What does this fold into?
Amino acid sequence: MKPQDHRFSVAPMMEWTDRHCRAFHRCMTRHARLYTEMVTASAVIHGDRDRLIGFSDVEHAVALQLGGSNREELAEAARIGRDFGYDEINLNVGCPSDRVQSGRFGACLMRESDLVADCVGAMKAAVATPVTVKCRIGVDDQIPADVLPAFAQTMREAGADALIVHARMAWLDGLSPKQNRDVPPLDYPLVYALKAAHPNWPISINGGIQSLDETQEHLQHMDGVMMGRTAYNEPYVLAEVDRRLFDETAPIPSCHEVLERFLPYMEQQLIDGWRLNSMARHIIGLFHGAPGARAFRRYLSEHMHKSGAGIEIVEAAARLVPDADKSCDATGKERAQAVGAV
It folds into this structure.
């Protein structure tokens, strides 16, 4: 796997980065790598696969994130993901939720690096698709400066094609999953040092990254950056990714142009039986900071859940924001140029 493959990615986020979210994000960036929500290996094997891991061809490059600690199940789930056409299979060793702990997967596996390595090895033996790991810098009473380098070395020896490090501890005893996203302090220098120790192995950094200016600073030390909540809550930040990080020369689309790109997808999904709110909820933040953004959000929020709601709801909401060739377009360009301050 080339380091460029992970130069910029949107983090897997439970209940957020579903297929519709990813299709929307792809309307703004061709090159960012997208990730599914975490899906347990057992769910992939025994559940409704199309509902759980189905995706559109427009989403490539897209990675399937799996949760679990059973090597046979993970290997089988990896094979299923490969057959679905995913570009990467990622193992979650970072989620701090109670459900994850009780199921023996996620961040609690930072304490069981040999088990994780065994799982990675089984997945690598099962598929030629790149297998990667996303982890924390440690959990609870572990010492990150000791744990992270040892964990990373074990993953590399197991054959992991890349490592993504959320630069925070996970405090499984005493903090909620939400608090674990903010309360433990970030330790970027530790992750930089890890990368310096592995110059020929792709390593990306995640956690607290809120702008493309910050992204470019991290890329001076790391192979890649993974952005989470900012990419979801203020998605227009993605519109400049290709120009700033991948040397593309295509014009930056305005907010309205992004929405126009997404509308045909939404129309087809409505035909296929999806409800409008399953898609429209992901575009709530598109016009963040632009005149009319509040009216856009309010209108969508009030109408997208109604029975029979169609594409006309989105079009009506968009008309509450100035036309793309007027103030909205200017605002969009200004935000794209100063996206580091978003």
Observations:
- The longest strand covers residues 62-67.
- The chain has two domains: 3-246, 255-337.
- The chain has 16 helices and nine strands.
